[in-house]
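To illustrate the input format used throughout this study, we show a single complete record. The first block contains the structure-token representation of the backbone; no residue identities are included at this stage. The design step must infer an amino acid for every position from geometry alone.
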């Protein structure tokens, strides 16, 4: 048993010496935490999705959502989860959205939005991709309501 104690002591001393010396092998783990925090902050940025609308156009959409679809948050030009929950209520009522009212403008929300936007100049496929055609029609919608 004595050899195991000596071996563990040597490993510990080597690790301490490496950390004290700033060795590359021991420095790498210290960089893992900042990378994880960058990932976490990226998630909060994605909470707002205007799909190409300016803040002024998004405010028009929020005002419409407040008037007709139970939006109770601030009219701030940032289409966040509460804006999208209200929009999903509209899309569920009239445009075939069957997903959760969760405020996440995912593929199924965009497909339903594209069906609505066919009345505002959207001529593309109902594919859930908010590409240039969807964004242009969304601007038409925002400026026409």
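Output of the design step:
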């Amino acid at each position: 048993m004595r050899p195991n104690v000596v071996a563990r002591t040597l490993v510990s001393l080597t690790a301490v010496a490496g950390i004290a010396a700033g060795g590359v092998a021991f420095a790498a783990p210290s960089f893992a935490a900042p990378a994880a925090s960058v990932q976490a902050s990226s998630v909060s940025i994605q909470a707002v999705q205007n799909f190409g609308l300016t803040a002024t156009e998004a405010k028009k959409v929020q005002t419409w959502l407040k008037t007709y679809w139970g939006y109770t948050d601030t009219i701030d030009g940032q289409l966040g989860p509460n804006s999208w929950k209200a929009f999903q209520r509209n899309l569920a009522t009239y445009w075939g959205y069957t997903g959760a009212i969760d405020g996440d403008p995912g593929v199924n929300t965009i497909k339903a939005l594209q069906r609505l936007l066919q009345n505002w100049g959207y001529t593309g496929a109902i594919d859930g991709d908010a590409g240039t055609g969807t964004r242009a029609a969304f601007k038409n919608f925002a400026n026409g309501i």
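Structural context for interpreting the output: The CA atoms of residues 69 and 89 lie 7 Å apart. DSSP finds seven helices and no strands in the chain.
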